[in-house]
Write a structure and sequence with these properties.
Layout (H helix, E strand, L loop, with lengths): L6 H21 L12 H14 L10 H12 L20 H25 L4 H12 L2 H6 L6 H20 L3 H19 L8 H15 L8 H28 L18 H15 L21 E6 L2 E5 L3 H14 L6 H14 L15 H18 L7 H20 L7 H8 L1
Antiparallel strand pairs: 1-2
Length: about 425
């Protein structure tokens, strides 16, 4: 049946199927558990401040994700009635769907952007679908984008930045080049405004621009269009990034817990600059211990997963899809040395730039910090498999079967199904 479809129709069908899978996994059962899960304990307080109490708060991350979540719950009619005092606190009667809507939305879009990026790189359709499918069914990413957390925006912005840069460099018409330059700046702002670790994307964008420079005969094409695209990128970044901080100071007008960290002078640039210095200092000064912290070099082997929530025979356990997490790393280790292209080099750089800096961080870290490097590894493994697969050898559907099996094994503790509390112990024994 599919052979009778045109190539464009097959691509649209693959995109639609991937969208259906991704949105279903993120939104089905989204309001469960009806309790505070893991870092919702922190981010819920920030949402309360922005939407309702307007008391000054302080966080080591930029405000943009929390501002969006606060705006959504405010539209839902939320009045700040949940205290977010402890993990497991009841959310009955609160707009749980609204709380988790933004993370679920950006998480749903992530596999679709990955699919578009792989297709832009001329990865065969079946393999591009497999790469997006792996991201959709990666349990660790799925958990983190079904609760109030910042990592989904970080991942989506990173991929969008790379895709928009590729589109900008490939565009022939001046208007499109400038437009994609603007989108690249907005995407970079989306990334950095989630977490400062998103700055690692700048290394990837720099690599893309350097490759374009070398491919053009080591000559910069300093035309009006190039300058306009660069200015559009800068304008897009500054507009979105500073807009979030403007709203931060506009909405937080009352004294609160953040008053102990900084005093607002009223100047929407001096205050931003001062607060950034305080945020970086506070981040480096975190010394409190936590039983679920892990060491950066343990993350590729998924050494120390995390309990996010436990209640009455059910649990949510941050653990990745073993077929995706371990499988992607094994493919990269086995094949990267034999197949080197601009795209594989770029993705390997993405892994390195977003992973190795954690070796120099002294504060306690968690397995979920590895999600950005993991995303690049998944895409890298997808390209390597697409380059090395031959007839009668490994095929996309072989990989997808393994992905589904890994997902099914892990899904009880991804969604917090009742009666599966002991699954984390089984998963630990598999390592």
């Amino acid at each position: 049946m599919f052979r009778n479809l045109s190539h464009a129709n097959r691509e649209m069908l693959a995109f639609a199927a991937l969208a259906a899978v991704s949105f279903a996994l993120h939104f089905i059962h989204l309001t469960q558990p009806a309790q505070v899960v893991f870092d919702e304990y922190h981010f819920g307080k920030f949402v309360n401040a922005y939407c309702c109490s307007h008391e000054t708060i302080f966080d080591i991350h930029p405000p943009h994700s929390k501002l969006v979540m606060a705006w959504i719950v405010k539209l839902w009619g939320y009045d700040g009635g949940v205290g977010f005092k402890t993990i497991g606190e009841s959310l009955t009667g609160a707009p749980i769907f609204a709380f988790r809507l933004w993370p679920a939305l950006v998480g749903s879009l992530l596999p679709l952007v990955a699919f578009k990026l792989l297709r832009h790189w001329r990865v065969p359709l079946a393999w591009a679908f497999t790469g997006g499918f792996a991201l959709a069914l990666e349990n660790g990413i799925l958990i983190q984008t079904r609760i109030m957390a910042l990592d989904g925006q970080l991942l989506l912005g990173s991929l969008l930045s790379v895709l928009m840069c590729e589109k900008m460099l490939a565009a022939r018409r001046s208007s499109k080049k400038i437009l994609f330059g603007l989108f690249m700046g907005l995407s970079l702002a989306l990334t950095v405004s989630a977490k400062f670790t998103g700055l690692a994307v700048i290394a990837i964008l720099g690599f893309q621009l350097a490759q374009n420079f070398m491919n053009s005969g080591m000559k910069w094409n300093w035309t009006r269009t190039s300058l306009a695209a660069a200015l559009a990128a800068l304008a897009g970044f500054l507009a979105l990034y500073l807009a979030g901080w403007w709203l931060h100071f506009l909405w937080l007008t009352k004294p609160g817990p953040g008053s102990a960290f900084y005093a607002v002078t009223g100047n929407f640039l001096e205050d931003v600059f001062t607060l950034h210095k305080i945020m970086l200092k506070a981040n480096n000064g975190i010394t409190s211990a936590h039983p679920w912290t892990s060491i950066w070099w343990e993350w590729p082997i998924m050494q120390k997963p995390i309990y996010y929530w436990v209640d009455q025979g059910a649990s949510i356990y941050f653990v990745g899809n073993p077929a995706v997490w371990w499988g992607a790393h094994m493919v990269c280790l086995a094949l990267l040395g034999f197949r080197r292209t601009m795209q594989t080099n770029l993705l390997a750089l993405g892994w390195f730039a977003s992973f190795i800096p954690y070796a120099f961080v002294s504060r306690g870290l968690f397995l979920y910090h590895y999600l950005p490097p993991l995303m690049w590894v998944i895409l890298l493994a997808t390209i390597l498999l697409s380059q090395t697969s031959k007839p009668n050898r490994i095929k996309p559907w072989h990989v997808m079967v393994l992905i589904v099996c890994g997902f099914l094994i892990t899904s009880p503790v991804t969604f917090g199904f009742v009666g599966w509390k002991e699954i984390p112990v089984v998963l630990l024994n598999l390592r």
